[in-house]
Every structure is written in C-alpha cells, then in structure tokens.
Amino acid sequence: MSGMDDLDELMRALGVTPKGQPHKTGVQPTEPKPKAPLTAKQLDALHKRLGASIRPVKPDKKTSSNSTPALDSVEHLVGAKRRLEQMTMLMDEVDTMSANTLQAEIKAKELRKRAQRAQSKAEETTRIIRELKAELQEAQERNRSLEAQLKDKSLLSSSARAAQSATQAMLDSLRTQTAPSPTLRQLLRARGLTHATEFSQALLLLAEQAPDLLLNSLREVPNSPLPESLRQRIILVGPDETPSPGCISVSVSAERCEMGETGLKAGYAEMVQAAELAGIKHLGLVGGSVPYRKQLKQLAEGHALKLRLVSGTARRQLRQAEADVRSCDVVVLWGGTELSHAVSELYRGEKIWQISHRGLSGMMSEIAMRLLDQAL
To answer: Which of 101, 254, 284, 350 could form a Cys-Cys staple with 328, CB 3.0–4.6 A?
Structure first.
C-alpha cells in the first residue's frame, strides 16, 4: 500500500476530509456516531508505512490525563501532510534536475558536434598549410634556378656588349681612316658662309689671327683643329654690329646676323621648332655670359620651350646639378664661354650635351641641328 493510501485510510479512520471536515454521507445521522480510536498497534503499523517522519506523540506528564487518542491522530495527520509536502517539493526538484540534466546532455552533444567540426576544419587548414609550404618551397627552388640562369645571361650580355663596343670602335676607326677629309670650302659652308666674298673675308681674318691654324689645314695635317676653330671663332655680324674681341667676324645681311635681334629671333624660332619635333619641352643651358642669358630669357618669352639658365661661374652643389638634370629633357654645357670646370663636371649622364660655339646664334643653331638629328 502506498503512502497516499495509508494517509487516506488514516483520515477515514479519524472521520475527516483533507480540509478537516467530517465525511458526508447520503443519510445525515441525527447524532454523530463516535469513532473508535486507533489502538497503539494500529498507529505503529501506520507509522512504519508512512515513514520515520511521522512519530507518535509521547504524552506529556502534565497533559497526559487530558489528551485523547483523537488529538494524537491529528498530530500524526499534520506530520504526514508536512512529509507529503516535503516529498512533493523533492519530486519537483528531482524533475527540475532531470530537465536540466537533459538540457545539459543536449548541449553536450551539440558541443561535441561543434568540436568535431572544428577539428575537421583544423585538419583541413593543416593540410592546406602543408600544401602551401610545399608550393612555396618549389617556387623558391624555381626562383633560385631562374636567378642562376639570369646571372649567366647577364654575363653573356655583358660580354656581348663589350664585344659590340669593341666592334663599333673598330668600325669608327676604319670609317675615320677611309672617309675623305672635308675641304676648306665645305668647312666654311658648314659654318654658314655662302658667298665667295665671305670665304675670302674669313680666310684673311684667319691668316691675320691664326696663321698656323690655316697653314696646317691647307697642308691637310691629320686631325686638324680647323673645323672646331671655325665653329667657335667665326661669328656672322650685321652691318651695324660690333663683334666680340677674339672672334673672326664675317659681315652678312641683317637677316643672317648672329648678334642682331632679327637673327637671334630667327635662330631661336628654329631651335624651338626642332625641339618640338624631338619632343623636348624643357631645355637646360649651363654657361654663357650674363648678357647672353638675359637675351635668351627675353627670347624664351611666349614660346612653349622652357629654358633653365644656369650660371657657369657661380658656385653650384651636386644636388642642385642633379635637380637640373631631373627637371630638364636635355642639359647643354655651353663651352667656349664663361663655364668653369668645377661647374661642368657636376653634370653627367645621357641628357648632357656639350656645345663649344662662342656665339649665341651659332650655339642655338647647333642645338637645333642636334635636336633634328634626334627627331629623325
């Protein structure tokens, strides 16, 4: 028999309902029928079935004479109810713990699945890393092989360039030896002289100022400095122009004058056109006197060609010279003018041109010729 059945039996024996009211029957007795009290043996049996929490109440010495078996049964009943409530609370706690345990097991399963997925991803990542390391090692080996091949090719290229330079030097030497020397007339025409009177005037001045130079050129001495001297010393002047000291001045018309405004403008316009054909937009000029640089600055106004004029005698640092080279397409070292060696040696590279003509118009003419050669 369960604890609830024992409790119900005890309540029926006491004649009370769960609310403490007497049982109702179909026929109401006129007088309540007294219930026989439980014997001590019956109470012990109920006590064993209900549990140790329900104990018989020991009669107090002071109140034992007044206590009745019914009161003892009520106390047992109250204890049984309390025990039942405790058991109910314990069962609720057990149910709650069971539910929590079930949820914990579900979470544990989910965590195990996540751990398995994470482990799978880690293994996949490790595999990918191994493959990447293998590919990196192969790439490094290929790179070392390519570097070795490149080094071999660089050595071969250097040898080829050296052989090419030697061959070119040999060809230049043979070409110089076999090429006929230009005649004096050709040299004078190349300088810009066109008429016999101009030839005569130049030759007379050469005979007066540089007779040894003229005699050596007439004797066809090898490597004669006459062509360079003609470029540097002969200047074409107009009727009203005064040549510079030490120059061989040949009188020409105003349009051909290398010192007058008309001739300078024409020479500068020719240089601008040649620069446009060669794709040159910034031209540097190192050297020349202060009046020459002033004239060039005036001629450059209104033209697309930009000039960077640098004094050839003022102190200049290497970083300034490097800035000049970077900002210009071509830098001309104007030799034969005010140009010190300390300044000219700062300028090095493929952009550097050297022109030794003393005159302003002749210098512009030579620059124009070089620009045309570069354009073609």
So the answer is: 284
